[in-house]
Write a sequence for this structure.
């Protein structure tokens, strides 16, 4: 018995349209239909290869909805996406007015940046600098 892969992850958000725009326009995710969900429940689903990412709107009161004004930190719940050019992502986020923090772990074999989505959820982008990066972890 073993885990095979990450099938999906979900973040709660207060403003679905703002979060949807962030994940499509900033990160370039492909939105897909939500076939199994009651349309009364507001949300959006995205495809990244064979992994899925879900947003679910939660109006008020959930403990995790602290907002985008929380400080950016490495030690937070987050999603990490592998990218091919972290410097291009830094330029893109700067151009879009999105603050990020540069991670310092993995020097020599990976580069990382951390930022928050409009709902305050933490996102990491990581670029592996060597094919054998996994030996360092």
């Amino acid at each position: 018995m073993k885990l095979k892969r990450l099938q999906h992850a979900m973040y709660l958000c207060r403003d679905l349209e703002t979060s949807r725009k962030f994940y499509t326009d900033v990160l370039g995710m492909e939105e897909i239909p939500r076939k199994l969900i009651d349309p009364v429940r507001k949300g959006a689903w995205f495809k990244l290869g064979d992994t899925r990412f879900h947003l679910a709107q939660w109006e008020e009161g959930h403990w995790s909805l602290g907002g985008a004004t929380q400080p950016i930190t490495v030690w937070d719940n987050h999603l990490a996406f592998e990218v091919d050019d972290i410097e291009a992502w830094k330029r893109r986020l700067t151009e879009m007015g999105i603050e990020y923090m540069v991670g310092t772990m993995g020097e020599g074999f990976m580069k990382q940046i951390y930022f928050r989505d409009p709902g305050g959820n933490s996102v990491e982008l990581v670029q592996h600098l060597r094919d054998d990066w996994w030996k360092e972890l």
In short: The two ends are 23 Å apart (CA to CA). Helices lie at 16-26, 86-95. The CA atoms of residues 13 and 84 lie 27 Å apart. The longest strand covers residues 51-57.
